[in-house]
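Subject — a protein and its fold

Tokens — whole-number codes for backbone shape
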Amino acid sequence: MQQRRIGDRTVSAIGLGAMPLSTKDPRPSREEAVAVVHAALDAGVTLIDIADAYARDEAEFGHNEELVAEALASYGPGADDVLVATKGGHTRSGTDWGLDGSPDYLRRACEGSLRRLGVEAIGLYQYHRPDPATPWEESMGALRALADDGLVQMFGVSNADVAQIDAARAIIGDAFVSVQNQFSPGWRHSAGELAHCAAHGLAFLPWSPFGGVDAAGSLDADAPAFAEVAAELDVSVYRVTLAWHLAQADVVVPIPGASRPASIEDSAAAAELRLSPEQLARLGG
């Protein structure tokens, strides 16, 4: 599979965004979810993106991390090559989502992720979303402290603007390597952040690359140009969409979700699909 860089790590050009494994209703069984992770690794995927808050409700907080840790432990040789990226800063109260970017909370969240993943240091730890109650600089300083204490190897931020990205670069330093913002055919508002990442050598991980769990099923209708190109190439519209993502810049690593092995296998194949300049122009660049 085509590869890309995240900091000092080489990873597959297509990652696995594991949120749907734990939140889709009705969701896959634990055995089915593990099979999806194994299918991703079989297809050459070496980046898995998760978060402590990816769970159905507060009672299952950390479920996503535990499930992926179980899947990697049962896979055998090759699992050590996987970069697991998790996130902290979102909280759950019942089924409601909240935010806490305070240094004390981020340290507790990181320590909880370490326990659930069963590792001494997290490969890529991402600040999930800005907390209006905590100055951005304080949250970034908390991340830097986690690196200084050896709990995290690399850092990223999610849902951040250009000014926040630059502040993170200044405070965290070389350990700051990635940005994860929403980006898809129907949601291109983070194009400026993507270009900024490309200019500074930061990996850009578009979340919901198909437009989100609810929108993915109607991608053919919502993105007719993508459907037309897919028909021309005799591939799925999802494969075309991921190839379009990869064509945006060599720092882009899309992280599609999957609830079936066939879905992640199709997504992984996008790394080898090349779109012509004419096709890319029809898709909007």
